Amino acid sequence: MSLFSPYICSMQVEQSLKNYINGELVEPLNGQYIDNVEPATGKVYAHIPSSDAKDVESAVQAAEQAFPLWSNVGVKARSEVMLKIAAGIKKYQRELAAAESMDNGKPVALAELIDIPRAHDNIHFFATAAEHFASESHHMENLAINYTLRRPIGIVGCISPWNLPLYLFTWKIAPALAAGNCVIAKPSEVTPLTAYLFSKICIEAGLPKGVLNIVHGLGPSAGQAIVEHEKTKAISFTGGTKTGEHIARTASPMFKKLSLELGGKNPNIIFDDADLANAVATSVKASFSNQGQICLCGSRIYIQEKLYHKFRDKFIAAVAKLKVGDPKENDTNIGAVVSKEHFQKVLNHIEIAKDEGGQVLFGGQAVKGEGRCKDGYFIAPTVIEGLQPNCVTNQDEIFGPVVTLNKFKTEEEVLALANNTKYGLSATIFTNDLKRAHRVAENIDAGIVWVNTWLLRDLRTPFGGIKNSGVGREGGFEALRFFTEPKNVCIKY
Ligand code: NDP
Questions:
Q1: Residue 325's CB: how many other CB atoms inside 10 A?
Q2: What burial class does residue 55 get, using C-beta atoms within 10 Å of its C-beta: 0-12 exposed, 13-18 middle, 19+ buried?
Q3: What residues act catalytically?
Q4: Confidence (pTM)
Q5: Quick one: which atom of ligand 1 is closest to the CA of 186?
Q6: How confident is the model at residue 446 (pLDDT cuts 50, 70, 90)?
Q7: Distances (CA, A) of 471 to 441, 463, 466
Q8: Are 448 and 296 in contact (CB under 8 A)?
Q9: What is residue 10's predicted lDDT score, i.e. its pLDDT?
Q10: Whose alpha carbon is nearest atom 12 of ligand 1?
Q11: Protein residue whose Cα sits closest to atom 13 of ligand 1
Q12: Would you say 216 and 197 are in contact if contact means Cβ atoms under 8 Å apart?
């Protein structure tokens, strides 16, 4: 069987994706569709259901029916189905990677290396983690024993963004399902294809109907309906800070549990004593992987004064070697940014940087694609120096292939600069001084700090940001705690 039959293999025929509700692939009740555009070509290649509150209502009804069975069937039975889903991702990994690349504009090599293997790992990890999940017990000497029961919440909403589509979609639904909840999920309408293919994998794996329901559509209609439905008791959201604020305003007065993974403007700090080759190679990845569209990208690079020129020259030389072009070609490093709207937003930010007095050392413009990519949304990796800490370019999340180089003298100074932002998602430090690494890691405002590396992830660790980068943590038992309701039972001796 091919996930793509009958159409996407040829990529010729336009077709419509479907919602996955009550175990079936169904059309939106209103019959409305949105165009799905391939960023590398700028052409419409499929249509996406433009679902609304009615579709969400039927998804909620399906989830309600499924919940008693799924929550009571036991962790082992849930784990077995989830492992079949993980195996399905592995079986169709090449097709999924091709779909992710076409839908998002990312290089197919990146989707094959990162996105799809990680989607598999997310499902596999939580399928097994749930079997090891334990709750606490508190002994009151000669009096009583307390133990904590952790029961699934019920129906939960999972809303994910377009930058790492299947990776972040599965990162949310896996712990929710493993903990025994039924899920209403909405992928970004900008990149819905792999979530649609994932629904076919769930059907093939025998996931009971109604346990997972995937509703495609726009944020303000389908997304909003999930958030404001009285029966979705928890919302796990990853996306922009503004959308997160809006979701919190809707869900908080309804007393829903909320996990918000939001934007970032992450510092990448290079001290004089760093291993220069590693700092350069890792910083190139941290700057431009996925066209700079990763919430963890280090977009503000701080280099200690003595190393500044050396780092800058080597960094620019490495950036100049990156190939921008057709994401289907295996040697492409930088594909297309996700949409025309985003393309214009990023180019506009480059103009703002110039107006603010920034000198563009490399890139700074759109790149004209060749052949089938002539109308695609390509932007050269862009490196800018000479900007002030409080300027828009150093404060706003651009979420594209744009980084700034900034000089600093002392550790105190760089800590103040790094923390001078409303965000607090991640930070990267390059140093060979162990004491300094510990000191800076402790004092930096971020939920995740990498030392001499970037994006090295252990799925057991807490993941999330502070300040405007979010509320709560995903990953490991943190996620299983989020998707369960603790109940204390006290037994008197
Ligand atoms: P958005 O906030 O625009 O959208 C995220 C999701 O929310 C999409 O599915 C979107 O649907 C949906 N949505 C929009 N409005 C509403 C609403 N009113 N109610 C419910 N759902 C809604 O983010 P992007 O997709 O543009 O993603 C980029 C952002 O995500 C960046 O800021 C990035 O930093 C952040 N991000 C954070 C991560 C983290 O872990 N902290 C990881 C990855 C990205 P639609 O697409 O239809 O608008």
A1: 22
A2: buried
A3: 261, 295
A4: 0.96
A5: 9
A6: very high
A7: 20, 11, 7
A8: yes
A9: 37
A10: 219
A11: 219
A12: no
